[in-house]
Amino acid sequence: MVLNKSYLSTKYVLLLLLSGLIFLSACATVPTDPVARQEYELRNDPLEPMNRKISSFNIFINKYVYRPFSQAYRAVTPQFVRTGVSNFSINLKQPVIFVNSILQGDFESGAQAFGRFFTNTTLGLGGLFDVATEFDIQAPEKDFGQTLYKWGFKQEGPYLVIPFLGPSNVRDATGMVAGFFIDPVDWALPRAEDGLLWWRYGIQAVADINSSTDLVYNLEQSSVDPYITMRTMYRQNRQKFLTEDDEGAIENYNFDFPDFEESDDEF
Questions:
Q1: Is 44 left (phi over 0), alpha (psi -120 to 50) or beta?
Q2: Nearest CA among 191, 153, 185, 186 for reference residue 171
Q3: Which of 10, 35, 170, 215 is the most buried (most CB within 10 A)?
Q4: 3-class DSSP assignment, residue 249
């Protein structure tokens, strides 16, 4: 199967962007004063000046592009249509969840993801209707960042803010890019037709924007320093997601990873 050139180009751009951010974090100047050095390592945010600028840009885009779009979308689109778009977007994520479940050795979650995708794609008209939930087929949450964690990459690496996408870190950003490459849906779509690919990502973007834009806006309005609030919330929520089923971690993987410090911000 020949992969579409624009499809690969987009993913290589993401890979290059991530590589550049990792390189910049490695080149960041580390304070020599012991107290400043301790605070620097506690934050684990060597790119903070750049991250703040990107965060401000993301907040601006959210306030003046994403949120108005989301408000207009809700105003003109019936609830059943919005529910169908959300269901369709969630269904398209199930193959990636299935792959990551298998890579993590969590075959029960893999079976659930496969069952949801098969049921909703067939009986749910391509995923527009969530028939699987009616059949009590659970909806697991897995991604490649979590897979890396289960494989032994416990250190998250420096904090990163990615343009348009928001908070992340080296490990999870690496997992995000890897997730694009292992997505079975992308490999299955006919490469001769760009339309199918862009429709797929367009629908997912609409669903994601609609679900997150108000949260970002409220944080920006209510926080004294939205950057610190977002950084703390991301780390706390991400750590909870990674560790909630640690007993299922694969213990036989011992990869070397840079010895980055990681910790939550304190108020």
A1: left
A2: 153
A3: 170
A4: coil
Amino acid type, 254:
N
CB atoms within 10 A of CB 110: 20
Tokens representing 46 are: 């060597």
Q: Where are the alpha helices (DSSP H) in the chain?
A: 5-27, 34-43, 48-61, 67-76, 79-103, 107-122, 131-134, 144-150, 170-181, 184-188, 194-222, 226-243
Tokens for 47?
A: 């790119």
Distance of alpha carbon 89 from alpha carbon 117, whole angstroms: 11
- In this structure, how many other beta carbons lie within 10 angstroms of the beta carbon of residue 144? 24
How far from chain centre, in Å, is Cα 154? 17
Low-confidence winner among 7-11, 124-128, 169-173 (lowest mean pLDDT): 7-11
CA gap 189, 45 in Å, rounded: 39
- Model pLDDT, residue 250: 42
Q: 7 or 73: which carries more pLDDT confidence?
A: 73
Which tokens is 246 given?
């640690």
- Within a 10 A sphere around the Cβ of 108, how many other Cβ atoms? 11
Structure tokens at 77: 């689109």
**Cα–Cα dist 205/201, whole Å:** 6
At what angle are helices 194-222 and 48-61 packed, to 10 degrees? Answer: 100
Q: How far apart are CA 33 and CA 40, in angstroms?
A: 10
Residue 246 DSSP class: G
Burial class (CB in 10 A: 0-12, 13-18, 19+), 45: buried
And the tokens for 111?
């079976």
Return the axis-axis angle of helices 67-76 and 194-222, rounded to nearest 10°.
110
